[in-house]
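ok so i was messing around last nite and threw this chain in just to see what happens. nothing serious, just curious
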Amino acid sequence: MIHRYLLLSVFALTSATCARAAPLDGLSAADVNGPAAVAPLDRPQSPAMLIVDPPLAGPLSKGAVFIQYRAENLRIEPVFGPEALKVTPRIGHLHVIVDDAPWHWADASGEPIVLVGLPAGKHKVTLILADPTHKPIVHQTVEFTVPPHAAVHHF
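result:
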C-alpha cells in the first residue's frame, strides 16, 4: 500500500513539473523542426542554408575527423531524381570533397561526416548541399590540421 502512495506521489510531482515546463525560449515545435513533412507548404520556401562546425577537437587530436553540420530549409533524405524536386519541404543530400580531390561522395545520412586515416598536416573538407538531381545549392569548407602523432593511430 505504501508503494502505491509513493508511486502516486512521484507521478503527481512529475506531471506537475512537466506541465509547468515552458517551451524552449517560447518556440513552437514547428519553429524548431520546421514545417511538418506531411503537409504541403502554403508559402514559398526560404533558401536552403548549410551550417558546418569545425572538426571536434578531441577526436581530431587522435587523428579522427568528426564534422557536424546542419541544413536549414532542406531535409537530408536518401531520395534522388527529378521527381524528388517536387517534394515539399525541400529535400537533398550532401556531396563531400576532401582536399580538393577531383572526386566526391554523396551522403544522405544526416549524420556527422567521419574521416579516419588522413595523413598528418593541413586538410580541408568541403560540404556541398545538393538537390535530389545532384545540383549544388550552397557549400561550406572547413580547414584543419591533423597532428603529427595522431596520423599513425588506427581506429
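not much to say yet. The longest strand covers residues 136-146.
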